[in-house]
Amino acid sequence: MEDFVKRWPITPLQKGIMTAVLELGALVGALFAGYFADKYSRRYSIIFACIIFSIGSTFQALAQNLFHLFLGRAIGGIGVGALSMLSPLYMAEISPPEVRGSLLALEQLSIVLGVVFGFWTGFITRSIPGPMSWRIPLGVQIIPGIILGLGCLILPPSPRWLVLKGRDADALKSLARLRMRTQEESESDSLLQIELLEMKVETELIQKTFAMDGDKSGFKTELRAWGRLFSKEYRDRTLVGVLIMFFQQWSGINALLYYGPTLVQSIGLEGDTVSLLVSGGIGIVQFFAVIPAIVYIDKIGRKPLMRLGSSVMSASHMSIALLVLLFQDDWASHRYAAWIAVGGIYTFTAAYGVSFGPIGWVLPSEVFPLSMRSKGVALSTASNWANNFLIGLLTPVIISKSPSATFVTFSAACFLAYLWATYSVPETANVSLEEMDEVFNSAAGKEDSHIKAQIEEDLGLKALIEDLANDR
Ligand SMILES: O[C@H]1[C@H](O)[C@@H](O)[C@H](O)[C@@H](O)[C@H]1O
After folding, report:
1. Residue 15: pLDDT band by 50, 70, 90 thresholds?
2. Ligand 1 center to residue 65 CA distance, Å?
3. Strand runs labelled E in 149-212
């Protein structure tokens, strides 16, 4: 990296801006992608986002001046932000409810795999002489972008989006492909028919409710739809989506990832390699921690994982804060204390990696009903990027004032997360996306359940279920 530092000796402020432009770009990408996802399909929006991301990465890898780098990070950020809302949205819509949590947790697996690859690529190439030391790590990001974009061409479209567009026959085809049934089987398979009808009932219900709002297109309606996220019916779900991301970020995970080396120095460890190894290790611990989450998230549920995770996270931060407070003036004669603190960082990371890491990506995409989903996921993802941005901005300031206060702040946030997970979040494991209303006790409002029963009857869902019950 010597070449980079010599070529562009940037000030701390420029460094801050360089970090921030990606997150701000991502915030914009996350907020706007929902519109495209509803209008032009989930898959095409993913492909488009991959193209934007690749353009951004190309600018970065071939940068001839600092402006190219800033621009590349901002453009790439838009792609990253869009993808971070589009992927869980699409995945939630194609997954069967029994394994939806596990499949969505794969998002986290891929994110941390990216973190690990990113970190170690930079670590390995940093000693190559010349500009390749930084052009290579900036360039390799294009590879996963291209794989994702091309891969999307062979994936089936989201059946829920097709239902939203009134393309029921195509939705059945896509559902058949996803559930590995032939076209003939899909015509007679009652379970598949029920799944499709449930999607239709949900869409009709929402459309009936929206129809009461008057005109159907245009800027005003779009605004009104965003506003609906804060209405009585959806407020609880919006809060779940926004707060899970708030707590995910304020747990301090990115403070460790971005400022790991500085933090580790604050607990008395020295030398570039040691600190790089410690912060590089954080990615690896996250990677291994997400594996049990994938296995257990649907079996034991989201809530127990979040409660266990946040309590261990809070305790780990608190013990590091205490160690820092006790030994910060004389780490040299308390090396063991410094290593216990490093152990605390890893324990925190493991607890985060099995809970708020993956669940941050699971909850937002499953709590919203179909026609509010893209906006709900967009807002939750925007909360991720906005809080991520704040962490990047504020952590160095708090560290410079007091390293122990930094850990106390994150410990307090994790404790609040524990209370929130215990008292405010409903369990969503094994609930189909269509049954989520009942979990949130919202559209189950009397009038809505009446309309819903009527639609179920009109569309033949009731009869189909009765038939199925009689056959058994
Ligand atoms: O879930 C991810 C993951 O844990 C990453 O390591 C972190 O950088 C992201 O901000 C977060 O959203």
Report:
1. confident
2. 29
3. none
Say if 28 falls within a structural domain.
Answer: yes
Query: Which range of residues forms the domain containing residue 21?
Result: 2-157+232-423
Nearest atom of ligand 1 to the alpha carbon of 245: 12
Do residue 24 and residue 134 come from a single domain? yes
Query: Tell me: the pLDDT tens digits for 376-405?
Result: 999 999 999 999 999 988 998 898 899 899
Length of the chain (residues):
472
Question: Is residue 135 in some structural domain?
Answer: yes
> What is the best residue among 106, 110, 112 to mutate for testing ligand 1's pocket, by most ligand atoms within 8 Å of CB?
112
Atom of ligand 1 nearest to the CA of 384: 12
The answer to whether residue 47 is domain-embedded is: yes
- 122 alpha carbon to ligand 1 midpoint, in Å? 18
Distance CA 48, CA 344 (A): 41
Give the DSSP per-residue string, 143-160. Answer: HHHHHHHHHHHHSPPPHH
Taking only the tens place, the pLDDT of each residue in 268-304 is 777 766 767 677 889 999 999 999 999 999 999 999 9
Q: Give residues (CB < 6 A) around ligand 1.
A: 108, 111-112, 115, 248, 253-254, 257, 286, 357, 360, 384, 388
For residue 174, count other CB atoms closer than 10 A to its CB. Answer: 23
How many structural domains compose the chain? Answer: 2
ipTM: 0.97
Q: Which residue CA neighbors atom 2 of ligand 1 most closely?
A: 357
What is the reported pTM? Answer: 0.90
Residue recorded with tokens 């951004």: 56
